[in-house]
Structures are given as structure tokens and as C-alpha cells.
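Revision sheet: C-alpha cells.
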Amino acid sequence: MKLYNKFALLLLLTFSFAIAQEHVEDSQVITIHSIGDSTMAIKPNPDDNPERGWAQMLPGFLSGNIALENYAVNGRSTRSFITEGRWEKVLENLKMGDYVFIQFGHNDQKENDPKRYTNPHTAYRANLIKFVEDSRAKGAIPILFTSIVRRNYNENGTLVDTHGDYPVEVRQVAQEYNVPLIDLQYQTELLVESFGQEDSKDLYLHYKPREIAYYPEGKEDDTHLSVLGATHVARLAVASLIQKVPALSVYLKAD
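Predicted:
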């Protein structure tokens, strides 16, 4: 009987140690929290829908004890992301050592929508600073991203910027607050130009009527990304992160 009790106690101690060890390992998982707009967000119906947000493709580039929570949502600006309580939800889940990927701008430009529009030099700038300071207050590491380029060619075949001063403010806030900057605007400009005016359509959503079932009437969208485009953008982001954020690089795969 005594031998049985000792054996039972040994089993109990072993089980308890395993549970405790699992808890320790879970608590050490670092999480990337991505916040932004539709160019970053998770798209529904991936088996049929050809659209992807670039952060939706990030899991394929992650390695080791790290997780990704993608909070990016279609149509959101820095203003609406805050006023809708979405930023508060992110803050509730942030923990020491986590990362916050921040990319807004496409919808902050919506001058005819007071619920989303922000002046780049005032409200937009202030909201970026809020994301940075709030993240740091939780012990997390903010990383700023400029918006990906729209495929906007003029009649002369020149790729023309559509984001105005918004990327400028991202760069300035990154510099002033010593935040790592991933300049996706510049990198995606180079990407689109490398494909050329016609072939770069493959990076976005260009489909003729009845070409694919998801868009039976066809689609011409030069803002949102295809699987190919999102994969390329994610790869660009990861390459820059490996270079600029050494502590995070151990969890990233270049391809």
C-alpha cells in the first residue's frame, strides 16, 4: 500500500510539473499584433476569394515560439480604429515583449467621411503617437509601416503616388520617437515598377468578366492585393524586419 501511495504521489508530482512547465512555455510566447486597414486584413473565403491582406500571409514567414493576431479591418483609419474600441481591445491583450505592427493611411484620406478622415499633420500624427506610446506603456514594441502603394499609373506610364503627406508623417513619427520603420510605400513602388505597368495587375485584383467565379462581372482594383501581391509584400516586410529589428528576426524566415 505504501509503495502504491509513493507511486501515486510520483505520478501527481510529474503531472503537476508538466502542467507548470506548459504554463511557463505558453507565457513566453511572443505575439505580433497587427493593426491597420484592408490592405493588411484577413480576407474571408480563402478557398474562393483571390484577395489577401499582406499580414494574412505572415504566418508562412514565422518560425518558433511566436503568434500572430491580425486586428486589421477593412475600411478603418486611425480615427475609426480608436473610436470603435478596436485599439482598446488590442491593448487588453498586449503583454511585455509583444510587437505591434501599425499601418494606416488609405482611409485616413477619406475627406468626405468625418468618422474616418484625419488631417495628416494633426489627428493622424497624434493617433500614430498614441499607438506608439500606449504600446510602450504595456511593454510592447511598436513598429510603423508606411502604406503600400496603389497601382496608379498616369497616361505617360509613370507610377504616381496617391498617399500625399501620410507616409511623410509616419516617417517623421518613427524618427522622432525612435520607432523601427518599414517603408512599404517605397518598397512596393519598386515592386510594382519591377513588374511593369501591365504585369503589375497580377499583384492586385484584375479579372475579366467570368474569368473567375468570385468576380463573375470582373474586377479592376488597384488598391487591394491578390495572393501573389500579398505574398510579395509580406516577403518585403519580413526582409526589412530581419534587418531592422534584430530581436524579432529570430522568429522570421526570409522565405
